[in-house]
Endonuclease NucS (Methanolobus sediminis), 171 residues
Amino acid sequence: MSDSECITSCTRVPRYITKNDVRTLFEEISLLNEIDGFSKESNKAYLEFETRLDIDFPEKYIEDMVFMQPNLVEPGMKVISRQLTIPTGRIDLLLENEAGEIVILEIKKGFPRDDVVAQVLSYKGDIEDRYPDKNVKTAILCEDCSNRVKNAAKSADMIIYKYGAYFQISA
């Protein structure tokens, strides 16, 4: 491999598995059943496949899931309010963790823009005024985010939670 091919290979954007890729994998797995000696019982062959699927969840669907099951974010998490309108905007979910801290959760579909950290921090002052005796934490729930968002969130002591769908085949 030439130097330029190597650099191109190392710097390309990762590709998520598509529905067509999954279909191809299923076809390949079904072919294994035709191979002599492939049997889970005899332990002559074993296949396990786990990957991240590229599924386009609407933001409201993600919010609905977290609203109904806040422990998905963190064990012991409880919902205080949903779509709470405050002077600086509207908070997707206002939660309380097991330690009694208020958690402002902003949900973003896919990869959030860089300004999401400023958006969530702007909510924090209003919530601190509303709950003066509570520690207020900030968090983002997204599929993934850029290094800029990760660094800004880290500097602001903001938690980044990630969502996704996983598909597993085992025999």
